[in-house]
Amino acid sequence: MKLKDSTTIWLKGALNDPIVQILAKNCQLTKTQLETLLIDILAENIAGKQLKYDEKAQLRITKTKISRGSFNRTLAQSKENVIKSIYTVLLLGYLGVFESSTLDPYLEVANKLRDYVEAHKDIPVKQEESENHVKMIEIIKEEIETSLKKLSSPSNQYM
User: How far apart, in whole angstroms, are the C-alpha atoms of residue 129 and residue 53?
Assistant: First the structure.
């Protein structure tokens, strides 16, 4: 399978994941910036080799051809937004906001996300155990989606 095809399949799968969609809708990155950042960070793992920026630009899902310069500008914007988000978290931690109970619902969701990721890593081999495991993963996923939707709604009483 060609690199473009395998990257497109992976990107579409990641960007269409319901949890990713909820998180992306409420983060500092545009969809294009998120896609560009993922390509920059993960495309070389898929390719198994170092890629030039013009090669990375061709991996974008968009139908129109984009230039290396456009890819690099979008990548710079996404990195700047990630850095600003990290500084926001550091600032809130420094000011003691994380010691407040107002963030407890967000921390609970973060813990559920960690459980979800761990559950995906530990899929059993036996059919019967695997079916139960898949059901557990689906329950965790639904809990996360419900929690995230509740936290991201405008009527949310937190924060």
Answer: 44
